[in-house]
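Tutorial, part two.
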Amino acid sequence: MTEVPDGTEPRIVADTRDLAARVGEPGEIGAVWNIPSGERDLDANVIALPPGEGIALHRGPAIDVLIHVVAGAGTLTTATTDIALSPGHVVWLPRGSRRAFTAGPGGLRYLTVHQHRTPGPLLGA
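Running the prediction step on this input gives:
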């Protein structure tokens, strides 16, 4: 068998069923999982918001982001409307779009997928 450099073979990096099962756990807020580090073009995180908590209205980064709601429920507030979120929803957040997230009574957990970028400022509020 030919050896390949680490990180160059497809592999399972997480099971969203396990990540979803922890929705609403006390003390879990923010990024509770991310794709293992290394050379890559893609980033992924699982964001956990406890019941009633949220992420304030902000302008997203200069990259498109795809989210997949894995557990709980909540609301995505955009510049023009509110969107109810529930498990299974896949939402596209266009680069630079204004958005806020609020978790419902059972909390909210969603997977984000986007182009890898170096940390830096958002586009502004």
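The chain has one domain: 16-115. In part three we will examine how such features are distributed along the chain.
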